[in-house]
Specification:
single chain; 225 residues; 80% helix; amino acid transmembrane transporter activity; transmembrane helix
Length: 225
Amino acid sequence: MGTLLLNGILSGVILSFLIGPVFFVLLEASIKKGPINAIFIDIGVLISDILYLLLAYFFAQEVLEKLHDNEYVKYIAGAIFIGMGVVAILKRDKPQKKKEINVDEVLDEVDGVKDGVANLPKKFNGKIAIGLILKGIGLNAINPGVLLYWIAACTAATEQLQITEGQMFYYFTTTLSTMFGMDMLKIYFAGKLKSKLNEKTISYISLVIGGIFIFFGILFFFRDI
């Protein structure tokens, strides 16, 4: 059992260091919106991974045949990623130009804040949490490469590691738990960077991440599934 769990941990660590679209989304969410937002997105990613893992385990052959027979899958996925990249670039927070401070205007704004503080909207609620989870699920679900990875992982577990059906649950539970734990570390350290970044740097990060999404989208067009 010890060897089984060790192999699961190693698989989780390796997968967590594979740089893909999810990594950059978690990075951006943690820096711009805070660690809590990134955590809920990652919960959605985890749910999607579990669903894909079950699909890969029980229907691997059928899934592979469908993917190979349907060339449009990679084009649809690519177009979605390109669209997400364009949106990320266009909606990024652009740095504001510095302007002279007017003391009277500042005092008026302070009074306005005092008067309206009771009516401020909540920054985070259940509806936002569900939306972030769905975002994580969707982000992972539109990437056919994730499903192919889990098919390969199931094949490697049974053929190379000689893991039996009874041991599969413990092996992949350890793998997924390790992945999630590593993501929490990434989110934590990314959140620590927020206080050291200015508006210009954060805007630049959004621009780069948007470009990376466009790159992944174009990559889908030219690679075989």
